[in-house]
Amino acid sequence: MSEQQQPVFQIEKIYVKDLSLEIPHAPAIFLERNQPEIDMQIHTESSKIDEGYFENALTVTVTAKVGDKTMFLAEVTQAGIFQIRNVPESDMGAVLGIGCPNILFPYVRETVSDVVNRAGFPPVILAPINFEVLYAQQQAANAEQAAAPQH
């Protein structure tokens, strides 16, 4: 009798892997009264670090500008080590591209808000992100790129 192994998904560690903050126009920028325009970029990355262990990193870059002057630029890479075993290979992309970033996002959101606030600005509260949609868009873009004729 062969028993099918139960899938394992466990958080081993969550940590800030990289953190940077730039305020290129300080101190004059603190006298600015206009509301900044906030731009956010997001990037996820996964890698296998050992048998059954994966690192997933979620990088968020937030840039606040008033006109052509940057008020601040904050970049945070929140990472996690996840134990993932007995998951079909066909499902691993979704686990790493949707499940892990969903776990990491509240941590990166708090770190961004905290570092921006400590820099002397009102905290930036990042809106929730639908990683399922981002993953589907990335898969579609990869399929389109693979189907494109090579020159």
Task: Characterise this structure.
- The protein is α+β, with helices and mostly antiparallel strands.
- The chain has one domain (8-144): Bacterial Protein-export protein SecB.
- It contains 2 helices and 4 strands; from the N terminus they run ββββαα.
- It has a 4-stranded antiparallel β-sheet.
- α1 (89-118) packs across α2 (131-147).
- It starts with 7 loop residues before the first strand and ends with a helix.
Summary?
The chain is an alpha+beta fold. The protein contains 2 helices and 4 strands, in the order ββββαα.
Give the overall shape, derived from the CA principal axes: globular
User: In percent terms, what proportion of residues is strand?
Assistant: 35-45%
How many whole angstroms does the radius of gyration measure? Answer: 19 Å
Oligomer: single chain
Strand tally: 4
Distance between the termini: 53 Å
Across the major sheet, the strand order is 1-4-3-2
For the sheet with most strands, the description reads: 4 strands, antiparallel
Question: Helix/strand/pairing class, anyone?
Answer: alpha+beta
CATH hierarchy: architecture: Roll
Helix content: 25-40%
Order of helices and strands: EEEEHH
Number of structural units classed as domains? 1
**Average pLDDT for all residues:** 94
CATH homologous superfamily caption:
SecB-like
CATH topology: Bacterial Protein-export protein SecB
Which CATH first-tier class would you pick? Answer: Alpha Beta
Helix count equals: 2
Contiguous low-pLDDT stretches (5 residues minimum) are none
